[in-house]
Design brief:
Helix content is about 40%, strand content about 20%. Strands 1, 2, 3, 4, 5, 6, 7, 8 and 9 form a nine-stranded mixed sheet that branches. Strands 16, 17, 18, 19, 20, 21, 22, 23 and 24 form a nine-stranded mixed sheet that branches. It has a six-stranded parallel sheet with strand order 12-11-10-13-14-15, sandwiched between helices. This is Glycosyl transferase family 1 domain-containing protein.
Length: about 800
């Protein structure tokens, strides 16, 4: 009856055209598909432009089968979902095989490539050889006693022999499987070794992650914490390692079910051996978060239960390949096929028994030259088995249809070149060769020696710099500076953009909102295809105290001038809101905090697509270098705009009290225009602390700015903690700059989103918004070298958490995904 039902079902389904028909057996975990080696192959072909039809049958008896069409840039389309047969076990497999054959005959047009990952699905290729132009069998494992049943094992071997004869190519994941396939009669020239390497696009195997490593850390990654992965043995090995290295930490990645009896026993064992501070459960991690943990870990561990050696003997564990890509030497046993490759590549150590495993881990921790050599070998081994390179070769052999590929081109328009997220996106794209990126910098007009100056620049994708300076020999009242910039910036942008060699870009990213006018115009005139607005702050609607935010040079004025300044401030707010609406017309809006996105929603701003992703990144290696620079304990640092909202008035007003306790203290101020510098020099003079302040003004070269900042002892971020302060919505640039300079931070208890991280990582000290508390906290830190050292360690921990690789990767993946949908 079920055969008749299956026949009728296939006859009423639509007929489809596809480049590839894939048939897999699918395992589900907590309602999610568990993907495997063939899925990586299909993802690669999908990304290359192939149209794929996938038939998925469940490994569990009670689940439905699926038929899905996948195309690049399109949502997956489900053609069928339902039970193929009411039978279970071997009869279910027979019904599925019959269904696959019928579907291929009646519903698949043309002659696509057939790709399967299970002998049970090979019936289509065996019995319909003329239907497919190529038949690729991806053999993920092998077992001499696959089913534990004599008759089923006979059928298994017959299907294997028939597959050898009919398949155009057989992909194997391990060297042991390859040897066994040849032994069973497969032609060596038809076997393609495709190990379970992770699929990393544009991965830099030469990148050195040593600066990010957590000392004496061991990573053990799996899908689930269960007995087959020998976690108890791993914990016992850690107990032995702890005798030599008390700081050792085992980081366990894997699902931890509350009803897992083995996990409960494991935790009891950890408690019994007093290892609670040496074992960390991270739970199941998605790819991005797992990669972050891989970057931070020193050694990879992979163990396999001896009683399952018949299964693991031919297996190629993905975890070991992931470890290698990030330079982790692996300590493993001999129960899986990957052990042979680890020995050959000298990318780790094969050890047997808990004592030997512990000894080898201790050896790696003690001998840095030995560790570094294995780490280098691991990266080279991973590079030699790069999945993209292997898939390119596989596709060539199978003559898979490949769409023409080209590198994405990006234009990034900013106010200041060299700041995040631009600098880290540029660095990431250069490291991974994922895109060509050109930049245009349009800084605001500056009043310099009674002249109006805009120093603009552009950088070609190859690094060539283009400069243009608008220098007018007259000045303007501060109230007219903003309108002048809004007008003159069009001319400056035209002069710079027309000098770029490239005149069309795939993606244009603009920040802040005023610069989105240019991305909007470029899209309107077809110079760019896809536009992005990086939204890093809100519009300050109020006045700080009684001071207008945009023209705070007029603070403290009275009468008609004061009224005019306040009115003009409100006009500028309206103009900024107009710019923001233009920004929200972009194809993608990248808000750097949830609070900014919420503020915009409350003010009626809607967009086509919203992405919320942090943009306050640092380069950990830079932070580590700067923490080692000798600090002047009589120097405090400040970088950023000079105004009351950033705490400058409070900071200078606090100085007289601080000088009483630290007589030689000085504050180094980096930033500000000539008028604001003059204003705060006057305030310092009024407070009697002129000798205790140094104003540098705006420093165009960031390296020069950081060379000054890195020699100070603390970074000051005394934001006005009221909700009206626009800085409370954003990810403060100055806090990120202090981290980059290797400085612990003194910050008020409210303000930027990153404030909570200062407490979490002990990377700074929070103060109340009053002079006495600020002075007390600064004096305490400067009086205790031990406390300052602990804060510096916290800076390193926070920098490791904010390292740009993870956030930029997530952001770039979302950007390219949305761009692909549009094109």
């Amino acid at each position: 009856m079920f055969l008749l039902y299956g026949l009728i079902t296939t006859l009423i389904m639509e007929r489809i055209e596809c480049d590839i028909l894939a048939i897999v057996h699918r395992l589900w975990i907590d309602g999610r598909r568990k993907t495997g080696g063939l899925d990586m192959v299909l993802d690669y072909w999908l990304d290359q432009g192939s149209r794929i039809c996938i038939i998925e049958h469940p490994l569990e008896d009670a689940r439905s089968s699926f038929i899905t069409i996948k195309e690049k840039g399109q949502l997956d389309r489900t053609l069928f979902k339902g039970r193929i047969t009411s039978f279970t076990g071997p009869l279910q497999w027979l019904g599925e095989a019959f269904f696959n054959i019928k579907y291929a005959i009646f519903n698949i047009k043309g002659h696509p490539l057939l790709a399967t990952s299970d002998l049970l699905n090979n019936a289509v290729g065996i019995f319909l050889p003329g239907k497919f132009r190529r038949f690729y069998f991806h053999c993920v494992d092998y077992s001499a006693n696959r089913f534990g049943n004599f008759f089923l094992n006979i059928i298994y071997k017959i299907l294997l022999q028939l597959s050898f004869r009919k398949a155009s190519l057989i992909g194997v994941v391990s060297s042991r499987t390859r040897q066994e396939m040849i032994k069973q009669g497969a032609r060596p020239d038809l076997i393609f070794h495709l190990p379970n390497s992770p699929l990393y696009r544009g991965f830099d195997y030469n990148f050195d992650y040593s600066a990010l490593k957590i000392p004496f850390s061991i990573l053990y990654s799996s899908t689930k914490v269960i007995d087959r992965y020998c976690y108890k043995e791993a914990v016992e090995a850690v107990r032995l390692v702890k005798k030599s290295f008390p700081q050792v930490i085992l980081r366990i990645v894997g699902k931890t079910d509350s009803d897992n009896a083995y996990l409960a026993e494991l935790k009891e064992m950890i408690k019994e051996h007093d290892l609670e501070g040496n074992v960390e459960f991270l739970g199941y991690l998605e790819k991005d978060n797992l990669n972050k943990v891989l970057r931070q870990s020193q050694i990879g561990l992979a163990l396999h239960a001896q009683e399952l050696a018949f299964y693991y003997h031919y297996a190629d564990p993905l975890k070991v390949r992931e470890y290698a890509a990030f330079g982790l030497p692996t300590v493993t046993d001999n129960n899986s096929s990957v052990a042979d490759d680890v020995i050959t590549a000298q990318s780790g150590i094969v050890a047997n028994g808990i004592t030997e495993i512990a000894q080898e881990i201790v050896h790696l921790f003690k001998d840095s030259s030995f560790y570094n050599q294995l780490s280098q070998n691991a990266r080279q081994w991973a590079k030699n088995n790069d999945k993209i390179t292997l898939l390119d070769k596989l596709s060539s052999v199978l003559e898979v249809k490949i769409a023409e590929q080209k590198k994405v081109s990006v234009l990034y328009i900013v106010s200041y070149y060299g700041f995040g997220p631009l600098n880290y996106l540029q660095q990431f794209l250069k490291e991974t060769d994922k895109a060509e990126i050109a930049t245009i910098s349009l800084p605001p007009i500056r009043l310099v020696d009674k002249r109006l100056v805009i120093k603009s620049s552009a950088h070609e994708a190859d690094g060539k710099e283009i400069s243009y300076t608008l220098d007018w020999p007259f000045s303007l009242p501060a109230v007219f500076v903003y309108p002048a910039h809004y007008i003159l910036a069009f001319w400056v942008f035209y002069k710079v953009f027309t000098q770029l060699r490239k005149n069309h870009f795939d993606i244009c990213i603009a920040e802040p909102c005023f610069n989105t006018i240019f991305s909007w115009l470029l899209r309107a005139f077809k110079f760019v295809t896809f536009t992005i607005f990086v939204n890093g702050d809100i519009i300050p609607e109020r006045k700080f105290g009684n001071d207008p935010y945009y023209i705070h040079q007029y603070s403290g004025q009275a009468g008609l001038l004061r009224w005019a300044a306040s009115l003009f401030h409100q006009v500028l707010v309206k103009v900024q809101m107009l710019f923001r609406h233009i920004g929200y017309n972009s194809d993608l809006v990248w808000c750097i905090t949830d609070k900014i996105a919420q503020w915009d929603r409350e003010h009626g701003l809607t967009c086509k697509k919203l992405m919320v992703e942090k943009a306050s990144f640092v380069d950990y290696s830079q932070v580590e270098r700067n923490t080692k620079i000798q600090k002047d304990f009589n120097a405090l640092g400040y970088i950023g705009r000079l105004n009351a909202g950033a705490g400058i008035d409070l900071l200078i007003s606090t100085l007289p009290l601080l000088v009483e306790k630290v007589p030689n203290i000085k504050i180094h101020f980096i930033g500000g225009s000539d008028p604001t510098v003059a204003k705060y020099k006057k305030l310092a003079q009024e407070k009697g602390v002129s000798e205790h302040v140094v104003f540098y003004g705006f420093i165009p070269d960031l390296e020069d700015a950081f060379s000054i900042l890195a020699k100070t002892v603390l970074g000051m971020a005394l934001y006005d903690p009221t909700d009206e302060n626009g800085s409370s919505y954003t990810q403060s640039g100055k806090l990120r700059d202090y981290l980059k300079a290797g400085l612990p931070i003194i910050a008020t208890r409210s303000g930027s989103d990153i404030i909570s991280d200062l407490e979490k990582f002990n990377a700074g000290v929070l103060v109340d918004y009053n002079p006495q508390d600020i002075v007390d906290k600064i004096f305490t830190i400067l009086s205790s070298l031990d406390e300052y050292t602990q804060l510096q360690q916290g800076v390193l921990r926070l920098a490791r958490d904010l390292d740009y690789h993870d956030g930029i990767i997530r952001a770039w993946q979302q950007i390219t995904s949305e761009f692909t949908k549009k094109i």
